[in-house]
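Record type: monomer structure entry
Structure origin: computed from sequence
Chain ID: A
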Amino acid sequence: MTAATNEFTFSTAVFWQQRVCAGCGDPGSEAHHVVLRSHGGEHHIDCGLLLCNKCHRGFHDGQYDIQKDIGKGLLEWPEKVAYVHEVLGDRADSYLLRYYRIEAP
């Protein structure tokens, strides 16, 4: 895992890694913590997913369709899904279902 020292470094690293919104494919502008900070997510690039403002707000507002689209984008980054499992352990599958509408295989 690549550590970032602060929010700015984290956001910059996520932007340069991904460039486009994982939800809609438009240019991305905001780094989203795949594991929410309130659930133990950290400033690691493996925890970052780039979103546009609309998708980022929709995710946090609980808009089902946006969360589902972001979930599809998340699956394109297996190291980020692995990060969720590493941080959350046995709670990872229920977390992915609740926040990203991803069902366990």
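Annotation 1: The longest strand covers residues 30-33.
Annotation 2: DSSP finds five helices and two strands in the chain.
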